[in-house]
Amino acid sequence: MPEPAGREQCWRTDSAEETRRLGRALGAHLEGRDVVCLRGPLGAGKTTLIQGLAEGLGVAERVTSPSFTLIHEHEGRLPLYHLDLYRLAAGDLPGIGVEEVLAADAVVAIEWAERLPAGLCADGLEVEMEFGSGKDERRIVIRARGARGRQILEALEEEADACTRD
Ligand code: ADP
Ligand code: MG
């Protein structure tokens, strides 16, 4: 039997708070070794979504972008590793231990995941964020990768209203 095609769903948000709310719903479903890979231009809301995700994981401290350090670790009901690879130069990858982080019993959320070698986000979710037409409007496409990705996406669809595709 062929692998079922990767599923995807889209959401539209009209404020940072709505994006955080979607992140919270997502964070509540995540388990150890789940990976969320985010793409999208600067200001699209990747960090904002991860702030909600962290709340959904029970992280109490403030989540800010690790753009200079590349990685932040937070304690929630599981550890959260938040990576931001914006400043990563080609060839720097082994230095930050991405493989170790992905193997830990933790949730991993990665901004600028397109700078990683293909395949590192093979089982989990890919989140693509885009600017919409209004200043605060964003379109968020969440794509399931692998069986675990589909499971998370289905759980999320049940509680967070997805947008209709246009
Ligand atoms: P990125 O990490 O993708 O560079 P940030 O999350 O740091 O983006 O910044 C997004 C900015 O856009 C924040 O200032 C946030 O308040 C603002 N914003 C406005 N509307 C939205 C929205 N619908 N979703 C997310 N952020 C929004
Ligand atoms: Mg960011």
CATH H level, superfamily name = P-loop containing nucleotide triphosphate hydrolases
Radius of gyration: 15 Å
Structural class: alpha/beta
Distance between the termini: 32 Å
What binds here, in terms of ligands, is: adenosine-5'-diphosphate, magnesium ion
CATH level 3 topology = Rossmann fold
How many β strands by DSSP? 7
Please tell me the total number of domains: 1
**Secondary-structure element sequence?**
EHEHEEHEEEH
Describe this structure in words.
There is one protein chain. With 166 residues, the chain is of the alpha/beta class. The chain has one domain (10-158): P-loop containing nucleotide triphosphate hydrolases (Rossmann fold), CATH 3.40.50.300. 27% of the residues lie in helices and 26% in strands. The protein has a seven-stranded mixed β-sheet with strand order 1-7-6-2-5-4-3. α1 crosses α2. The longest helix is centred in the first third of the chain and has 14 residues, at 16-29. Adenosine-5'-diphosphate binds at residues 13-16, 18-19, 40, 42-48, 65, 111, 136, 138. The site of adenosine-5'-diphosphate has 18 residues, from α1 and α2.
